[in-house]
């Protein structure tokens, strides 16, 4: 494993153990077995390191969306959307600590927003892509043509985000997969 990967792994571990404030670059470098100077050779700032953790280590929504898109027109739409929904809940649950810390620090948030804009992504991206996939399934005749794909995608992602956040305050009373299947079933009801 290369130095960059060790740093990202150490950052993810430090974020889980100490939260955003406690996951200092000094602590991350020490856990990665490198100097802080070497950490900064790989990452220009903490924002870039956080983005690397988000994009490279957390259960990614991108591959789940790619799987959905590959199955447009064939396969079980409900099963594919249910799998995606479970992944989205897992993603939002794992990203909550980073997101809340970034939101609480205006300078970190400003840097993070700039970086997301530069690479053309952000929290809106999976919603837009999911809406495109839903529209493709509509054109394939597998989802009700009357469904507002943009609203449906926003509602599905919003429900995932909400469930993830609620899980920090109370244990869900049902299984995430069963919940996801119920949400998708409601979305696809004709």
Count of β-strands: 0
What is the name of the CATH class of the largest domain?
Answer: Mainly Alpha
| General form | elongated
Question: What separation lies between the terminal Cα atoms?
Answer: 50 Å
Q: What is the CATH architecture term of the largest domain?
A: Orthogonal Bundle
Q: Segments where pLDDT lies below 50 for 5+ residues? A: none
Taken together, the total number of domains comes to: 2
**What is the string of SSEs from the N terminus onward?**
HHHHHHHHHH
Average per-residue pLDDT, rounded, comes to: 91
Please state the CA-atom Rg, rounded to the nearest Å: 19 Å
CATH topology of the largest domain: Tetracycline Repressor, domain 2
Number of helices: 10
Share in β-strands? under 5%
Largest sheet entry: none
Structural class by secondary-structure content: mainly alpha
Structure description:
This protein has 190 residues and is mainly α. It folds into two domains: 1-55, Homeodomain-like (Arc Repressor Mutant, subunit A, Orthogonal Bundle); 58-188, Orthogonal Bundle (Tetracycline Repressor, domain 2), CATH 1.10.357. The chain has ten helices and no strands. It has helices at residues 3-22, 25-32, 36-42, 46-56, 61-70, 77-104, 106-119, 124-139, 149-166, 176-188. The longest helix is centred in the middle third of the chain and has 28 residues, at 77-104. It starts with a helix and ends with a helix.
